[in-house]
Amino acid sequence: MVNNLAIAALALSAALWSGCAPSRASGPARASQGGRGEAGAGLRLRVGVVEFENKAPYARGTLGAAAADVLVTELAASKRFVLIERQRLAKVLEEQKLGLSDLVEADTAARMGRLLGLNAIVTGSITSFGVSQTGTDYLVAQRKNQRASAVVDVRVVDAETGRVLSAESGQGQATLSTSEFLGMGSRAGYAETLEGEALRAAIRQLAGKLASQVDAQDWSCRVAELEGAQVYLDAGSESGLAIGDRLKAYRQGREVRGAKGQLLGRTQEEIGELEIVEFFGDNGAIARVAAGKAPARGDLVKRPR
To answer: Under a CB-based contact definition with an 8 Å cutoff, are residues 164 and 93 in contact?
Structure first.
């Protein structure tokens, strides 16, 4: 019996010893992203990412925040957007007495986006999430496999009209394998980092396409304040503006709605042309009226076509 055990041990050692260190797998890797924010490429849109709603039966409270943070990281890596802190978004939700489920309504999401001067707001939900564990035990050798899988749905809403710009779904998984031989090797309980890896894999699957669709939108900002001949804008150097840039100011009028009641946009009247003369704060600019009339607070400002 002892000889049989020894033979079995020697046979298993060749197959398992190289696997004693944990091995991980997740996918896919981040794709290269180019666009609006690259050198000389233009202006950067202001985007807010709200904490994701967790609709999965897997009730871990931090999943929604973790998913939003992963997407923020992916969008920030593209250097194409000015991303608003999630804490500021959460504060507006609280002040407006809104929950994450309320943001399913595009008009509600757009209203929140306008309060923060955003061009677009990103909402999402975790629709499926699971963690499983399997293993084998060969008396002198053990092997354990852990797997996490996630499915996320993401929507991008135009903060001006409430129109859904993009609706994407992504899925991802991550695995961790560990093994022991005669009590030696790696030991692993539940690997919490698998959650993040599975979410990251799911979000990376859609992040590039999502960024391109958001980036295709027209850039705009708002008149924040007027003081004498100075016009203060709620976008500055961080948004890609430069001293001497010319922008056009528009006065918005009545809402235009479709046959089903959805907001299509607002009528616009061109007021005048502004020239950037100075920057202030984290992301603000001071302009002068270069042509036409002075705008009013809240007027829309766009780059000339």
So the answer is: no
Burial 129-145 (b: 16+ CB within 10 A, else e): bebeeeeeeeebbbbbe
- Coil, helix or strand for 120? strand
Give the sign of the dihedral formed by CA 35, CA 37, CA 41, CA 45: positive
The domains of the chain, with CATH numbers, are 23-215 (3.40.50.10610), 220-302 (2.40.10)
Helix ranges (DSSP H) in 24-153: 63-78, 86-95, 106-115
Instruction: Give CA–CA dist 196/200, Å, rounded.
Output: 6
Q: Which of 277, 245, 209 has its CA nearest to residue 31?
A: 209
- In one-letter notation, the amino acid at residue 239 is S
Q: What is the pTM of this model?
A: 0.71
What's the CA gap between 185 and 84, in Å, rounded? Answer: 45
Contact 159, 193 (CB under 8 A): no
User: In 3D, which of 88, 72, 158 has the Cα closest to residue 121?
Assistant: 158
Q: What is the DSSP string of 244-275?
A: T-EEEEEEEEEEEE-TTS-EEEEEEEEEEEEE
Query: Pick from 77, 17, 24, 73: which is nearest to 49 by CA?
Result: 73
Mapped onto helix, strand or coil, the DSSP state of residue 99 is coil
Alpha-carbon distance of 89 to 84, in angstroms, equals 8
Tokens of 198: 């599975």
pLDDT per position as a tens digit, 214-250: 888 889 999 999 999 999 999 999 999 999 999 999 9
Helices (H), 116-239: 193-215
